[in-house]
Amino acid sequence: MNSSITSVKLVLLGEAAVGKSSIVLRFVSNDFTENKEPTIGAAFLTQRVNIGDETVKFEIWDTAGQERFASLAPMYYRNAQAALVVYDVTKPQSFIKARHWVKELHEQASKGIIIALVGNKIDVLESGEERKVAREEAEKLAEEENLLYFETSAKTGENVNEVFLAIGEKIPLKK
Ligand code: GDP
Questions:
Q1: For ligand 1, is residue 36 a contact (CB within 6 Å)?
Q2: What Gene Ontology terms describe where this protein resides (cellular component) (predicted)?
Q3: Is the pLDDT reported for residue 36 higher than 90?
Q4: Domains (ranges, CATH) in the chain?
Q5: Are residues 152 and 119 in contact, defined by beta-carbon separation less than 8 angstroms?
């Protein structure tokens, strides 16, 4: 039995209101609220998951999506080993923003950073809202830029744990 803990600094980036804080709340507390107060600056939370015999402790920086905070982002991604770049599958503008974040991370963040592209709010497609970002388009970006790719719902919890597990599995474990 191996009791070592591997810590992973992870940052969330993406346009305001795509659901970054909600994804973190779902992952950390298995909870969801409809009317979340926007994050000011950044919030820090941790959560542990077991991957095989190993414990991975995620140290999560949830950054505010508002433009006025964008200049702070490098502070949070500079030492990050992983990033979630989140967009809303019904908001094309948020996907354009996601492309920019991926580019910036590749240019400015640590070389080996693991990036997951996350299309959130897929639950709304069930209730008749129109998808505005094709899965194929996101898959293409993920392939070109070497990203993990998931579509999630923070509301139902669909695929949220899976994103973090997939990242955990790619992190070199402390032995
Ligand atoms: P952030 O600014 O990116 O952190 O976004 P928030 O987490 O604050 O979410 C913005 C709004 O979208 C809130 O009203 C959330 O309740 C809502 N929201 C977040 N994730 C989902 C989701 O997966 N499905 C639906 N239907 N709403 C969501």
A1: yes
A2: cytosol; early endosome; late endosome
A3: no
A4: 5-173 (3.40.50.300)
A5: yes
